[in-house]
Amino acid sequence: MSDSLIEILPDLWLALGQTALMLLVSLAASVLLGGPLGVLVLLTDRGQLLQRPWLFAVLNGFINVVRSFPFVILIVALVPLTRWLIGSSIGPLAAAVPLSFAAVPYFARLVEQSLREVPRGVVEAAEAMGASVPQIVFKVLLVEARSGLVLGLTVMAVSLLSYTAVAGVVGGGGIGDLAIRYGYYRFQTNVMLITVAILVVIVQAIQFTGNRIAARLDKR
Amino acid sequence: MISLEGVAKSFAAGPRPFEAVAPLCLRVGSGEVFGIIGFSGAGKSTLLRLINLLERPTAGEIWVGGQRLDLLDAAALRQARRRIGMIFQQFNLLHNHSALENVCFPLRIAGLKGEAVAARARQCLELVGLADKAAHYPAQLSGGQKQRVAIARALATEPQVLLCDEPTSALDPHTTRELLAVLRDINQRLGVTIVIVSHSLAVVRALCDRVAVMENGRVVEELDLRQAEPPQPRSDAARRLFEAV
Ligand SMILES: Nc1ncnc2c1ncn2[C@@H]1O[C@H](COP(=O)(O)OP(=O)(O)O)[C@@H](O)[C@H]1O
Ligand SMILES: [Mg+2]
């Protein structure tokens, strides 16, 4: 076990770096693009502050359609876009494109759900005080829903981690790819066990950190 | 101070619109405490929410402090709302904000900054007797304390009018009396005009100068409670309310 661990150590560091890169890029994309999308889909729904039925239908439909694609298909379907953006369809940065594409609507949905939990009356109280829509979004909705948003981000980070394994197989690299290369193709079961154990530890760490931060932020 | 002229509100519901408030006229003088009483579903909340345009009227004119609100654009309406405080049955405080931060909120959204904000907020908490709870979060406060924070928050921007939607309905009788004393105090010391919705005659009697009795979206009777002799309700709804005590 320890021999094979030392043997794969350089590969392991590289793979961890690749996984981290894929994860960070797609998380950043989901927060920067999925966050606003989630806010907008909520605000345009019937009975909400910016009620726009057709815009809601378009945004909501987009989220559903992208989310219903199996991830492997998304990777293949997005190859032209990936080439255009990154200049290549291989490597962790290239894999981050379909990952982000899947993550954005996923996070948008999580954001929308968290914001829906904010009681209607709290929003109305802000309206009655003369708050504008941006003020209500940034000072009421996002603040009141912040622990739910952190938990949503946590759930998504864990899902994305397992997506990176899929992306790895088609050229993204990363820790999931390592597990399959050594464990499946070279029958080095112990290497596969090590990588799986590392994945388990990472997932635990993400979930633990997310839960801690969410609890800290929650004063309800 | 407040004048509703031929105001009505219908909700689109099913094939025919549902008339929650039938066309009515209502005037509330400056410094007055005006009650709106009636059974559940009578349209009291809708009428109250028309005053600060949380509900848009389907007919009529809404005047507050000499300004016609229903014609204002969004920005002007936000300005006007800063002069109209509101409190609710469910308090509607920001749960992730401390009591002090809750009271700072309306000042911040009005664009105030710096030391003045917290100073004014502290002053308002003192006014409702909660200066010592400034750092507490709503979850750490009792119902009566939460409502007092809500009152402090509503008063932060020095409104001329305070709208109250069943402010004591989630509170026990003792806390209700305390809260009514706070409201009376605010009315007398600050001269704030109060409109209070309630289904409880005891609440209205303890606080109001005049009361409108509502039933099925109509004001069926207005009673003056300032007179020495007990009011003589003529409408059925009013009689039933008075008997229920
Ligand atoms: N947004 C709405 N859409 C449809 N009907 C409503 C809406 N708000 C209130 N109503 C109806 O208007 C009537 C009066 O409601 P409300 O003013 O809340 O009564 P009250 O406060 O006296 O209990 C009720 O029958 C209620 O169902
Ligand atoms: Mg009501």
What layout of secondary structure does this protein have?
The complex is a heterodimer of chains A (220) and B (245).
Chain A: H1 2-43, H2 53-68, H3 71-77, H4 79-86, H5 92-116, H6 120-128, H7 133-144, H8 146-172, H9 175-185, H10 189-217
Helix pairs in contact in A: 1-2, 1-5, 1-8, 1-9, 1-10, 2-5, 4-5, 5-8, 6-7, 8-9, 8-10, 9-10
Chain B: E1 2-11, E2 18-28, E3 33-38, H1 44-51, E4 59-64, E5 67-68, H2 74-81, E6 84-87, H3 99-109, H4 115-127, H5 143-155, E7 161-165, H6 173-190, E8 193-198, H7 201-207, E9 210-215, E10 218-224, H8 236-243
Parallel strand pairs in B: 3-8, 3-9, 6-7, 7-8
Antiparallel strand pairs in B: 1-2, 1-4, 4-5, 9-10
Helix pairs in contact in B: 3-4, 3-5, 4-5, 5-6
The complex binds adenosine-5'-diphosphate and magnesium ion.
The site of adenosine-5'-diphosphate has 12 residues of chain B, from strand 2 and helix 1.
User: How many DSSP H or I helices of chain B?
Assistant: 8
Strand share of the residues of chain A? under 5%
Question: How far is the N terminus from the C terminus of chain A?
Answer: 48 Å
Rough outline of chain B: globular
Ligand identities = adenosine-5'-diphosphate, magnesium ion
- Level-2 CATH architecture of chain A: Orthogonal Bundle
The mean pLDDT of chain A is 91
Please report the number of helical segments of chain A: 10
Mean pLDDT of chain B: 92
Strand portion of chain B: 25-35%
- Looking at how many chains there are and whether they match, the oligomeric state comes to heterodimer
Helix content of chain B: 25-40%
> Helix and strand string of chain B, N-terminal first?
EEEHEEHEHHHEHEHEEH
Could you tell me which chain pair has the largest interface and how many residues each side has? A-B, 22 and 34 residues
Task: Tell me how many strands of chain B there are.
Answer: 10
CATH H-level name of chain A... which superfamily? MetI-like
Count of individual domains of chain A: 1
